[in-house]
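Why predict the complex rather than its parts? Because the way molecules touch one another can change local conformation, and only a joint prediction can capture that. The input here totals 706 residues.
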Amino acid sequence: MSRYWSKVAGGLTPYVPGEQPKLPNLVKLNTNESPYGPSPRALAALRAEVGDTLRLYPDPNSDRLRESIAAFYKLKPAQVFVGNGSDEVLAHTFLALLKHDEPVLFPDITYSFYPVYCGLYDIDYRQVPLTESFEICVDDYMTPNGGIIFPNPNAPTGRPLSLSEIERLLRSNAESVVVVDEAYVDFGAESAVGLVDRYPQLLVVHTLSKSRALAGLRVGYALGDAELIEALCRVKDSFNSYPLDRFVQAGAAAAIDDRAYFEQLCAKIIATRARLVSDLASLGFDVLPSAANFVFARHSQRGGTELAAKLRERSIIVRHFKNPPRIEPFLRITVGTDAQCAALIAALRTILA
Amino acid sequence: MSRYWSKVAGGLTPYVPGEQPKLPNLVKLNTNESPYGPSPRALAALRAEVGDTLRLYPDPNSDRLRESIAAFYKLKPAQVFVGNGSDEVLAHTFLALLKHDEPVLFPDITYSFYPVYCGLYDIDYRQVPLTESFEICVDDYMTPNGGIIFPNPNAPTGRPLSLSEIERLLRSNAESVVVVDEAYVDFGAESAVGLVDRYPQLLVVHTLSKSRALAGLRVGYALGDAELIEALCRVKDSFNSYPLDRFVQAGAAAAIDDRAYFEQLCAKIIATRARLVSDLASLGFDVLPSAANFVFARHSQRGGTELAAKLRERSIIVRHFKNPPRIEPFLRITVGTDAQCAALIAALRTILA
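Output of the joint prediction:
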């Protein structure tokens, strides 16, 4: 550590994102991107932004994009916050809404960026163990807390939590914010967006990186009561006035407006997932029930580390977590195209033979 | 304040950016954008990014862009940090390098985002008054501090500080970081980039929003010793793994590579500035010596509030700061095209008649 670093900088344990390999011809099933490209309407909107107006600052409030998102969910623009990827939205959420005297609660096996945000902003937290079947049990969260956050479906397990359980948690937890991180919700889980008008402590976070096939554009959003959104805006306006560039605002709005393309894309991935789950099961994998665009699977005989390495030798990249030890046997496999999934299954068949 | 807000969110006084009006046909001289569009090579690179690969995450480390910036300044990529606008770069800088026990020092009249960052991250600061002629006096900064930051040229005054004075400050201030915010340096001030290899406490911050005509793309960068850059990376990787989207990385690299276009653009603005200064002087304005793409001018008879309002009635927008009272008489006027500056002068002539 350099003498010039702040104590904060020296004390951090940064997040390690999934690998973004620069090699071509890989079957890339490691970071849950869409195997299909974005909406043609989004591409047309992006193309239209290439020009001299790029010399001008973008709209600092992303009004047009927030209106599209509000219309999609039948909310008001004042209930919508947008950011540079859902990671930025989550970062602002931790600082604006989850930093209190009591600890924030989140699952022990979940998106591993949550404890990193707590480190960045000096927020106390407590990790709540998933059940033996890797499920979130909402009763375990009914304890004094400074906020609650979990993905639904959870990552990297893919398991969804029912809307009735989420509502049961909200009813018993009125005094602190409950964040439902719905990065993967469009692939089969029940969204909590419909509860936003009834629970002022509910914040729902989405991303365009998965079901809108725009991971390369970096945009995420939060939906919630206008008072929660205002807190996020206050932090955003104390950090970066213009977090979304002109391309992001135009392309994201067009992607949200193209509901038909979005629904078709989700349906294709859900169909491929069903085949993938069945093929993996036939090879001896135990696959957790997934409502996401990935599956979390362990083999009855072979370890996760070994399988991930052997797939890699065959130019197939999946995600493997060494920690916590409980999930070491698992592979997290993105649902790719049918052809990519077939290549994965063929490779696994050879490896397991 | 809502009961759900953190103390941090409740205590903030957010930055207020210059207005981004949605009306067409304005002469917009209020936020120091380039009056000319970006490099055609940047536009071509942006156009090439429109496609299915937007489904994939961008390079989290922006290697290609960092290599272009390093090559431009004859530095190593490890001496380059990039962010979502220089505002994000500055935010990370405050948290990673300027949060210490002693207060950060910056001028009393300067970029008004600096105290906002201090509020966001609970950093103690002390504002050092400019001289009567609105200059930075480096002797005033030779006191125990947790870091020093100032723009060069300063904003909103436009006055530059000489490289020899900056080096004198660096020699006497080895124990804390000195940040030179060179957002406007390309329009006539001396850059401190050449000192980076000799002073491990020096961080130089740039933006593509001004001299590269890409305010709509949101990209800024910091140049400094690899140890300083590492601290910024640690904060960035604890906040958002992928702050720069695929468009930004491609377009910004192409803009940096196009040195000829950049030099031509700066030369045009410098030439227009000379005429603007002389025209303003002939109308009775006192114009501070500017090394930026804006001028800071006060009229001998008329107040800044009045002049800004009357210009606005004529669809000409300039920036006016009510505080501190010392700068109330001034207008900050972006150097536009020759035609825009002529329209401004004609309007002022009518107003002052």
